[in-house]
Inverse folding.
């Protein structure tokens, strides 16, 4: 499938490059009697460039929406969408969180591009860019070159994504001008963790998963291009200007937004949020521990320990992989490696004669971690409820060993 994919990419690249050659030379070839669209005297409508913004989808990797650049030459009926997209064969949950999704700039006919969003019930709006004629030609050339480069990147949620590609291409297309973002929405000044929570606010479980793996990036603040989501690219562009060398400013967008596809898909929030789910888990663990102490229900408590600490170990192994191997969020420190350290189960297995000591050490570590809550914005209530459940069982096992 990868070989076929590369062939398709090259074919599209050659096609789009031929389109660009046509764009560069076709203006002089239009005859007054042509049935093609009439080109204005200033050539402003010979090439049009716009940003397409799609509403969020249901899969966890599409909850932020999507954006792309649409390039058109109405006079010659050329209409392509350039999008930085993932390999369709890799668009599944496990490959996504393993950082194995490959992305590349692709060009597809607009009708084909929109068909996928229409099938999923996702809305698409179009915003025309206020670029000069030569800047639009330059933008088309840059997009074609991006395809020809055949660069396959590993998807990074906060860095290498569709919004970053769109912003970078717009800025690089400018000729003797600069992009001035102006006054940004207040959310753009938040830390990355708080901003990610805002972007994922309509999907509490997606928010929980992303924060789990984001690590110390929660407390950082990336550049504008690397922290934007499709939701905010339009507000930013609406407040931005292109500034010429002599100080002349003009808005980045022109005209009104055009609804290309209506949004049919409705937001479907989870019935139970992570906070309530793990609060219920903590309450259940407390009840089981009390039954163990008061009623002698050791078998039920043992089953609870097996399930709880098997979960703790599996999460720890996944965190080790996503922190030090996967490139989905970059290789950074993750605070949850402390309570979910997979080394704990190894020590428990090899130090059978010293398990009470291990319970004491582990309980201290977990208590200290709870006290570290203000240290990082990554550490939040839903995750600490899980840690609380671990604390209850570790302390209970320590006290039983003592008795």
């Amino acid at each position: 499938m990868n070989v076929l994919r590369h062939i398709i990419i090259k074919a599209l690249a050659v096609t789009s490059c031929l389109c660009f050659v046509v764009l560069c030379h076709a203006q002089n070839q239009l005859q007054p009697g042509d049935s093609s669209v009439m080109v204005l005297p200033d050539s402003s409508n010979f090439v049009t460039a716009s940003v397409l913004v799609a509403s969020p989808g249901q899969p966890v990797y599409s909850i932020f929406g999507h954006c792309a650049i649409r390039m058109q030459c109405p006079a010659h009926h050329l209409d392509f969408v350039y999008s930085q997209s993932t390999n369709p064969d890799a668009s599944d949950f496990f490959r996504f969180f393993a950082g194995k999704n490959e992305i590349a700039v692709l060009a597809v006919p607009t009708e084909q591009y929109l068909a996928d969003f229409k099938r999923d019930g996702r809305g698409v709006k179009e915003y025309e860019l206020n670029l000069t004629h030569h800047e639009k030609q330059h933008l088309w050339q840059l997009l074609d070159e991006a395809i020809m480069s055949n660069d396959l990147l590993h998807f990074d949620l906060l860095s290498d994504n569709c919004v970053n590609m769109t912003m970078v291409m717009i800025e690089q297309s400018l000729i003797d001008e600069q992009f001035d973002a102006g006054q940004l929405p207040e959310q753009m000044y938040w830390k990355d963790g708080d901003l990610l929570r805002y972007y994922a606010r309509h999907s509490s479980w997606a928010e929980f998963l992303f924060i789990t793996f984001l690590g110390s990036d929660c407390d950082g603040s990336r550049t504008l291009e690397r922290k934007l989501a499709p939701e905010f690219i339009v507000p930013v562009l609406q407040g931005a200007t292109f500034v010429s060398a002599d100080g002349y400013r003009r808005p980045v967008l022109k005209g009104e937004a055009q609804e290309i596809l209506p949004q049919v898909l409705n937001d479907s929030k989870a019935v139970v949020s992570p906070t309530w789910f793990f609060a219920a888990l903590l309450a259940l663990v407390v009840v089981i521990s009390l039954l163990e102490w008061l009623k002698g229900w050791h078998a039920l408590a043992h089953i609870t320990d097996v399930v709880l600490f098997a979960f703790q170990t599996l999460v720890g192994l996944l965190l080790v992989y996503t922190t030090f191997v996967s490139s989905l969020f970059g290789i950074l420190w993750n605070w949850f490696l402390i309570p979910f350290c997979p080394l704990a189960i190894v020590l428990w297995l090899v130090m059978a004669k010293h398990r009470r000591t291990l319970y004491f050490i582990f309980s201290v570590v977990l208590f200290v971690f709870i006290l570290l809550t203000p240290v990082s914005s990554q550490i939040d209530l839903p995750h600490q409820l899980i840690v609380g459940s671990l604390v209850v069982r570790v302390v209970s096992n320590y006290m039983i060993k003592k008795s």
Remarks:
- The longest helix spans residues 298-324.
- The CA atoms of residues 85 and 103 lie 5 Å apart.
- The radius of gyration is 27 Å.
